[in-house]
Design a protein that fits this description.
about 90 residues; two-stranded antiparallel sheet; 2 strands
Length: about 90
């Protein structure tokens, strides 16, 4: 059985690979946290320069969220791909 650290590392590596393969660039930093049956993944450095500029110029009342819709087709394909990657990490 894998340790929690090994599982988190495998998920981090898989998410980094996913971003590189599907988005064309990998994150600058990725960290996965396994909390009971919940996986939390933090990605840093995944926004393009244009997306970063757009987020900085949004009015405060709109919040600091990335623009919606630009990656919608990819977003629809992500869950099965990510699910398969996570299931490939044998943790039980």
């Amino acid at each position: 059985m894998k340790t929690q650290g090994e599982i988190e590392s495998a998920i981090s590596e898989g998410m980094s690979r996913f971003e590189l393969e599907y988005m064309g660039r990998g994150p600058k930093d990725v960290k996965a946290h396994l909390i009971d049956d919940l996986i939390v993944v933090r990605l840093k450095g995944v926004l393009t320069a244009a997306e970063q500029h757009l987020v900085k110029t949004l009015p405060t009342e709109k919040g600091k969220r990335p623009p919606q819709g630009g990656t919608e087709p990819l977003d629809r394909d992500r869950p099965p791909t990510m699910e398969a990657m996570v299931q490939g990490v044998h943790w039980r």
